[in-house]
Predict the 3D structure of the following.
Amino acid sequence: MKRKLLLLSLGLLTFIFKSQAQWTGPTSGILSTSNQVNIAGVVVSGLPGSPPQPAMFNVFTNTGSAFNLNFSVDHGRADVYGNLIVNGGTLSLKRTGTSPGDAFKVQTAGSMTLNTNGIIHPSIGFFINSNNRNFFTITEEQILFKNATQDLFKVNANGYLSARKVIVTLQNPFADYVFDKNYKLKTLPELETFIAKYHHLPNVPSLAEVEANNKQIDVGEMQVILLEKVEELTLYILQQQKEIDALKAKLAE
């Protein structure tokens, strides 16, 4: 019995330390440690009509009443029955065939990469599924979030954004400050002089400023600026209406 245990230990060390080593022990009960962990090879069912194929490597834990399978390596696959934890390293899923390389990689810094290697197809990308329905997808063609009946949010390959409603959190005050009694509204001659000199309205970004910002504008802030101009126009209209009413009164006299 002692001789068998010695041979078993030597074989296990060879399996661990020697590259390209192969285990040649019995098909079951290969290793048992304090009745807590059992590494064994068992017979599993193959395809219908084919003879059973032996599993290559199985790891069980003892619950006290039964052995539970935690890890299994079979022909062409590996199964983890529980939490998969990689400490201090990178988890990679390799792609073979005509386009080899990393298909999926999770690095220790928290970054996650899904590599389709330039393959463009609606079924290739990142998908979140619930109740047999992909409600969130990312592919090279689009980013899509939807419910059971319609698209709720979509960005296509041209950068076009589709959504049911857009809510923007503003950083600057809303434009009703125009109606404050202390707001200094330019006179129409002052406004005409400003436009002739700068070729844009006051407080509105110029063409040069927009182009210097890679032709990008802040949608929320631009809405506030446009509302500011609408409220200023309202004040100009009210002023002109007072002047018209005064002229009408003089004509009536």
Observations:
- The CA atoms of residues 213 and 251 lie 53 Å apart.
